[in-house]
Amino acid sequence: MKKMKNIEKLTEREWEELASLLSGEQDEKSEVPGRFLDGDTLDTEKHWKELKKMDDDKEINVDRAWDRLYSRMNEDGIIAPAPVRRYIFDGMPVLRIAATVLILLTFGSGLIYLNNKGLLSSKTTIATTSEQQNIRVDLPDGSVVFLNRNTELSYRRNFSGHGRNVALTGEALFDIAREETNPFTVSAGSAKITVLGTTFSIITNDAGPEVEVFVQTGKVMLSDNSGKQSIGIDPGYIGTIGSGQPEVKLNTDPNYLSWNTGKLVYSGQKLENVFNDLRKIYRIEINTSDPDILSQSLTSTFEKQSHETIILVICTTFNLSFTRDGDVYHLSRR
After folding, report:
1. What average pLDDT does the chain have?
2. What is the C-alpha separation between 198 and 219, in angstroms, rounded?
3. What is the CA radius of gyration of the chain?
4. Fold of 123-250
5. What CATH class has 258-333?
6. Of 182, 176, 150, 52, which Cα lies nearest the Cα of 107?
7. How far apart are CA 171 and CA 134, in angstroms?
8. Could you tell me which residues come within 8 angstroms of residue 161 by beta carbon, excluding any fewer than 6 positions away?
9. pLDDT grade, residue 312 (50/70/90)?
């Protein structure tokens, strides 16, 4: 199979520009696609469009493809301008058959190369670090997503026009714009979440297959990737799916979405539970050598306060002191 001469000469950015031209996103030819096509004797740009029509169940017009290929080869001086003799085999020009096969093989090579480069997907990816929390992402359909720490969200540029599909790793809160005929689907680890318009959160864990979904409004369908297991989740409930049977339970944790709301509410919870919340939300560590401290009950509300302020309030309330080493707090009695 003949390779295109200029494949390895283009940079990553130049491949993106070429892919944009071939996919129809860029109308005006620039120097990069021109340089690529100068070394391409198979008229890749035009025949790419012919192949694209296969997705619409339309046949490739072999005669037209041959005429375009022959004309380009003639213009480039690859063949003499004199008429070419075409030998017939079962009523179809043999040379046209060979040209069609060559076109398909060349396009296949180009498609594989561009796909491996990630240039055909035109994918947008937003990722947060361990220091970034509650990052807002506005999707093209009007939906809004808030990303927690160490989370990644990705979607294609043609997102709203060809199915509202996104992929998620980590934890995020979704507020989905309702479209009755265009469901919103999230691929999250071992599960898929499908909605029409609702508010819900998703937690995935790289360490295991379990996916957890909490629904605030509307209704969510949670299923595994095989489609063999699925559950519907109503507002106020948490659904989980993973290696075992899907489960649904009522959410009794008022601080489930505190990483997003910035609000912590306690009405008699033990400090052990409070410290667990602080560890999760603020990514800090809290230690104590006195187990009696963990059994103390706290009634208080914190709204958009720093973790150090919260610890100071706790220490004042229970007559404690603390020392700090970076993100590690050690609490003890005074």
Report:
1. 78
2. 7
3. 29
4. Jelly Rolls (2.60.120)
5. alpha beta
6. 52
7. 10
8. none
9. very high
Residues 81, 74 contacting (CB under 8 angstroms): yes
What pairing do the DSSP bridges indicate for beta strands 164-169 and 184-188? parallel
Q: DSSP for 90-122, please give it.
A: TTEEHHHHHHHHHHHHHHHHHHHHHHHTT-SS-
Residue appearing with tokens 């070419």:
84
CA distance 280 to 288: 17
pLDDT band at 65 (very low <50, low <70, confident <90, very high): low
Q: Which residues on neighbouring strands pair with residue 58, listed in sequence order?
A: none
Instruction: Identify the H or E element spanning 187.
Output: strand 184-188
What residue has token string 């819900």?
200
At 73, list the tokens.
């080869």
Distance of CA 210 to the CA centre of its chain: 18
Q: Can you give the residue ranges of every domain in the chain?
A: 7-116, 123-250, 258-333
- What does the pLDDT look like over 82-110, one tens digit per residue? 454 444 434 445 455 555 545 545 555 55
For the chain, give the longest Cα–Cα distance. 101
Q: Tell me, what DSSP letter sits at residue 125?
A: E
Q: Tell whether the torsion through CA atoms of 113, 116, 118 and 120 is positive or negative.
A: positive
CA distance 313 to 309: 6
Q: What is residue 284's predicted lDDT score, i.e. its pLDDT?
A: 94
Only one residue has tokens 């055909």, namely 120
Contacts of 59 (CB under 8 A, 6+ apart): none
CA atoms 245, 246, 252, 255: torsion sign: positive
